Amino acid sequence: MVRVERPQSEILLLTIDRPERRNAVNTETLQQLAAALAEVSLPETRVVILTGEPPAFCAGADLSGAESEVFHAALGAALRALAECEVPVIAAIDGPALGAGTQLVMCCDLRIATERSTFGIPAAKLGLAVDQWTIDRMTREFGWGIARAMLVGAEVFDADRLHRSGSVHRIGDVGDAIEWARVLASQAPLTVVAHKAALDESARAPDASARSEDLRLRAWASSDAEEGRLAFMEKRPPRFLAE
After folding, report:
1. Whole-model pTM?
2. CATH classification of 2-183 is 3.40.1390.30, yes or no?
3. Closest C-alpha among 79, 193, 176 to residue 136
């Protein structure tokens, strides 16, 4: 299951809550995750955090149902829901994030992990192969070298190694993730959304940039932009309303 909480009104915390299975995801869990993300929109939510109930972030797919077409459809839908979420998504990793766990992590915009966290795609050890969308996303988020090591060499990486590579942005726990989210939530949401869309579209065909350009123009024309300028001149914290 996925537990839904709000540590702050504008922050949505989604927790994969199957500790007895080390948070291995099944069809129902993935469907719940996609459904929760489908409800996310400004201005009610400015940041989403995805984490797992200890002792793991997500140990992979629940292999009891991983071969079914329904499972694979649910996994694909959940991954795309994370990648296409309107607002920034922070992955707060503590413990193993393997297989589907690493797939979930790489679909988030920002990543923070404890030192005991591990990452990898052990498909080559199971006789499986991941889809092209996952491979494309992994090469963009982790880089060619790490993607090749994980996919071809079935290599497992620790948090420190990924942090040094820039694939993990910070070392810390879910409490640190919430504090980070509070900082993000205080920033101009229309600007953040426009930048997120532009970064996503930079990996696509040139004609896919219309949405990010619309969002950029919306940010420049917003009352938040005026508030940001006034707050800077008046030397006070801005009060952004996503308007």
Report:
1. 0.90
2. no
3. 79
